[in-house]
C-alpha cells in the first residue's frame, strides 16, 4: 500500500480554501476518499492483530495472517492490472473499498473464531487492499504531475497522520470501556460504515477508462534490461518493504503486549501520529531546500537508531521514545522514496503510457520485501519470542532502508521535467 507524505511549501497551512487552490477538484476528491479509507483503517486496523493475538495467544497466527494479506495483495496487483489498464479503473477502487468493509463483516460474524480463519481472512483483506491501492495509485498518478505531486503527498501525509491521531485513541477508549468483544464490534461496525461512505463519494470521481493493452511481462523486461532505472528502484523499494512487512503490525502488537490495555495503544498512536503530523509539515516546507542524498541518509540511519533504546527495556516508555523518533525522521526517508519513484514512472510519455504496469512493478518490489521480512519474522517467532529476540528482529529489518538509500542515490539529485497528464476522462 502507498504511504503518502508531503506538504507544499507554498501553502503550508491546512484549510479547505488553500487546498482547493493547491490541487484540482478531482485530486481533492481523491484525497477525501483516501482519507476516509485511512480513518476506517486507523479505527480498526491497528487492533486487528491485537484481536487475533488475544484470542489465539500466538505470534505465528498474526504472522501468517499478515503474510497471506501481503501475498494476495501483491498477486491481485499483478492480475488486476489488466482490468485497471483496459477497463474502468474506478470499479477496482470501489470493489476494494467494498471488500474492505466485507472483511470487517466477516470478522464480526466469526468473533473469537476468527483466529481459526486467520489465513483466509488475510487473503480477503489482501484482495481488498490490492484492488483499492492499485486503482488508487493509478488515479493518483493521473490527477497529479511533478509540480503538484509533492503537494498531494503532503496533504495525504497530513490527513493520514490526523486520522492516526484520533481514530486509534477513540477505538482504544471504546474497547477498554466495554466488556468482552463489545468494543471491538463497535469499532468494526464504524469502519464498515465509513467504508460505505467512501464507496458513495467515489462515484463523484470521473470514470477513467484505460488506454492500450496490459503487458503482463513488461516489469520483468525492465529488470532484465541493462541500465534500466528499475534495476536500482526495485531493490530500493524492496528494502522499504522489508521494514514495512514487520513494523506495520509488530509495533502496535508489542505496545499492547507491554501494556495489556488497548487504551494505551490508542494513546501511543495519538502521540506518535501527532508528532508525524508536525514532522510531515516541516519536511514538506523545507525538503526542497535540503540535499536529498544526505537528508535521506540521515532519515534511514535515525529510524534504525531509535530502535536501540528497546535493548535496554521493552516498556511503554522506551516504545514511546522509539515511536516519536520514528515519526520525526520517517518523512526524510518516505518523501523521496514515494515522489522519486512516481517521477520515474512519469519521466516521459512512453513511460507514462505504461503507468499501470510500472505501478504493478512497484508493488511487486514492495511485496517481495514485505514477504522477505515476514519470512524472517515467522522463522524467528517459531523458536523464540522474547522481548530481546523481537528487538533484534526489529533492528535487523529496520536497517534495510539503508540499503534502499544506496540504490536510490542516483535519483535523489534529478529533477523531472513537467509533463502533461494523460487524458483518460
UniProtKB/TrEMBL annotation:
**Which subcellular locations apply to this protein?**
Cell membrane
TM regions (residue ranges): 28-53, 59-80, 92-111, 117-140, 152-174, 186-205, 241-259, 265-283, 292-312, 318-338, 359-380, 392-412
> Keyword Transmembrane helix: yes or no?
yes
The keyword Ion transport is annotated on this UniProt entry: no
Q: GO molecular function of the protein, one example?
A: transmembrane transporter activity
Q: What is the lineage of its organism?
A: Bacteria, Bacillati, Bacillota, Bacilli, Bacillales
Spell out the Pfam families in the cross-references.
Answer: MFS_1 (PF07690)
Give the membrane topology. Answer: Multi-pass membrane protein
InterPro entries attached to this UniProt entry: MFS, MFS_trans_sf, Sugar_transport-like
UniProt cross-references to Gene3D superfamilies, sorted A to Z: MFS general substrate transporter like domains (1.20.1250.20)
| Protein name per the record | MFS transporter
Species of provenance: Paenibacillus paeoniae
What PANTHER family does the annotation carry? INTEGRAL MEMBRANE TRANSPORT PROTEIN-RELATED, MAJOR FACILITATOR SUPERFAMILY (MFS) PROFILE DOMAIN-CONTAINING PROTEIN
GO cellular component terms attached to this protein's record = plasma membrane
Q: Supply the alphabetized keyword list.
A: Membrane, Transmembrane, Transmembrane helix
Amino acid at each position: 500500500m502507498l504511504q503518502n507524505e508531503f506538504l507544499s511549501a507554498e501553502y503550508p497551512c491546512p484549510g479547505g480554501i488553500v487546498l482547493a487552490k493547491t490541487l484540482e477538484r478531482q485530486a481533492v476528491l481523491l484525497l477525501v476518499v483516501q482519507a476516509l479509507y485511512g480513518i476506517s483503517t486507523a479505527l480498526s486496523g491497528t487492533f486487528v492483530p491485537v484481536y487475533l493475538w488475544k484470542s489465539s495467544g500466538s505470534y505465528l497466527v498474526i504472522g501468517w495472517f499478515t503474510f497471506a494479506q501481503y501475498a494476495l495483495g501483491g498477486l491481485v496487483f499483478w492480475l488486476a492490472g489488466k482490468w485497471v489498464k483496459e477497463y474502468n479503473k474506478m470499479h477496482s477502487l470501489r470493489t476494494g473499498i467494498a471488500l474492505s468493509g466485507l472483511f470487517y463483516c466477516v470478522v464480526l460474524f466469526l468473533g473469537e473464531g476468527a483466529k481459526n480463519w486467520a489465513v483466509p481472512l488475510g487473503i480477503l483483506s489482501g484482495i481488498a487492499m490490492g484492488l483499492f491501492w492499485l486503482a488508487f495509485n493509478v488515479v493518483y498518478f493521473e490527477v497529479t504531475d511533478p509540480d503538484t505531486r509533492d503537494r498531494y503527498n503532503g496533504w495525504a501525509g497530513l490527513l493520514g497522520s490526523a486520522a492516526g491521531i484520533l481514530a486509534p485513541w477513540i477505538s482504544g477508549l471504546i474497547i477498554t470501556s466495554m466488556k468482552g468483544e463489545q468494543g471491538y464490534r463497535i469499532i468494526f461496525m464504524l469502519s464498515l460504515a465509513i467504508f460505505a461512505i467512501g464507496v458513495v463519494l467515489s462515484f463523484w470521481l470521473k470514470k477513467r477508462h484505460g488506454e492500450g493493452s496490459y503487458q503482463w511481462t513488461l516489469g520483468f523486461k525492465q529488470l532484465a534490461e541493462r541500465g534500466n532505472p528499475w534495476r536500482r528502484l526495485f531493490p530500493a523499494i524492496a528494502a522499504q518493504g522489508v521494514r514495512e512487512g514487520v513494523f506495520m503490525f509488530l509495533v502496535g502488537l508489542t505496545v499492547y503486549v507491554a501494556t495489556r490495555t488497548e487504551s494505551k495503544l490508542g494513546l501511543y498512536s495519538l502521540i506518535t501520529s501527532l508528532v508525524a503530523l508536525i514532522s510531515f509539515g516541516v519536511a514538506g516546507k523545507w525538503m526542497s531546500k535540503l540535499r536529498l542524498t544526505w537528508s535521506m541518509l540521515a532519515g534511514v540511519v535515525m529510524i534504525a537508531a531509535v530502535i536501540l533504546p528497546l535493548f535496554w527495556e521493552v516498556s511503554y516508555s522506551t516504545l514511546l521514545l522509539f515511536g516519536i523518533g520514528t515519526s520525526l525522521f520517517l518523512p526524510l526517508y518516505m518523501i523521496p522514496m514515494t515522489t522519486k519513484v512516481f517521477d520515474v514512472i512519469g519521466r516521459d510519455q512512453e513511460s507514462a503510457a505504461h503507468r499501470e504496469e510500472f505501478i504493478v512493478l512497484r508493488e511487486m518490489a514492495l511485496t517481495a520485501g514485505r514477504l522477505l521480512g515476514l519470512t524472517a519474522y515467522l522463522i524467528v517467532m517459531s523458536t523464540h519470542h522474547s522481548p530481546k529476540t523481537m528487538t533484534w528482529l526489529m533492528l535487523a529489518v529496520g536497517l534495510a532502508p539503508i540499503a534502499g538509500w544506496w540504490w536510490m542515490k542516483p535519483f535523489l539529485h534529478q529533477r523531472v521535467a513537467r509533463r502533461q497528464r494523460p487524458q483518460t476522462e
